[in-house]
Amino acid sequence: MPVRRPPLILALSLVPVLALAGLAGCGQDAQQGPPPPSAESQAAIKDDGGAPRAAFGRAIDGLFAEDVGRTEALVVMKRGAVIAERYGEGVRAETRLHGWGMGQCVTALMVGQLVSDGRLRLAESAPIPAWQRPGDPRGEITLKQLLQMRSGLRHSETGGSANGASTGGSLAQQSDRMRMLYLDGRDDMAAYAEAQPLEAPAGARFVNSAATPVILSDLAARVLSPDAHPDRRRKAVGDYLRNRVFAPLGMDSAMAGFDRSGTMIGSAMIHASARDWAKLGEFLRHTGSIQGAQILPRRWVQFMLESSPRNPGYGAGVWLNRTKAKPGAGGEDVLFPGMAPGNVFACVGEQGQYVIGSPDQLLTVVRLGESDPVQERVVHDRLGKLLAMFPGGI
């Protein structure tokens, strides 16, 4: 039987109706707004902390999206309690995660305890034997200048490929950071760092330097273990760090790495669980106290959170939410001008590691993962937007 078709006039008369129905559907979709957060992010939120709950969930999803690389952990604390917590595949709450450059914040806390004990002096020349020879201008470098990244020592944080030596590159093409950590300086990192000449007068210029926390770690070893034996240096510093920093903060999972000479690799090799990294942020947010007990002198933490004379965006081991903080060679802002209160601070590590404290918002935020430089900018921007959701933000 032949198929019967509607008359042409009837078919044409249906076109406006169908078109209007399609437009109505599009309008309805547009009115629905952004999609709801994923089930994983909804489950991650224990309390919205005053932020819009759906937007908070979508912000968490954004920090686990493919365009940020791999986020291994995100912890958000408000008033000292975890209000959101999510982990990447294969990562659990107790997993120790790499802090990379956030180790310089831990090193600054350890040095603060040594200053509090009277074993080091902030305003005096750093007691490095090689710098004390008559006529050596490095003898002018003070402990304070080291902590504020203005020693004047030659250092390049970025350079050629990390495996340049195996692809035809020379050691001279490597950054000082890569040479110290992985190449000719790796067995005695402090010796490599301390052998560098001045390229600016002590105190005159800011340079973010992975070598500086290694020098500070060597100073700690020298005052805690006059015996230069690597095992005794390692034990003395490890015990002091555990007893005076990690244990009082409740960072039970934290572990520090050492090189073959027994020097703590204070710029890179500290691991801890995400919750323990968050305890570090809470400690700084409370200016060195825990439940009312002052663990580290308040004035030391205040010093850490004051701008370096040569970079308003850096204190001592900690980045600050000040105008135009420019670490490294890229010149990018590190924190969140216009997005978060001016007293926000952060311990920051390579590949997008962050421990962020916001005293005005009563917040601590931790993000740990693996991101390339482009992805790090995405992580940074999304963390700033997450902070801006909470009361007390800008």
TrEMBL record:
Domain Beta-lactamase-related: 72-383
Keywords: Hydrolase, Signal
InterPro entries in the cross-refs: Beta-lactam-related (IPR001466), Beta-lactam/transpept-like (IPR012338), Diverse_Enzym_Activities (IPR050789)
PROSITE patterns given in the database record: PROKAR_LIPOPROTEIN
GO molecular function, one term: hydrolase activity
Annotated signal sequence range: 1-21
Top-level taxon in the UniProt lineage: Bacteria
Protein's name according to its UniProt entry: Serine hydrolase
Species whose genome carries this gene: Novosphingobium pentaromativorans
Phylogenetic lineage: Bacteria, Pseudomonadati, Pseudomonadota, Alphaproteobacteria, Sphingomonadales
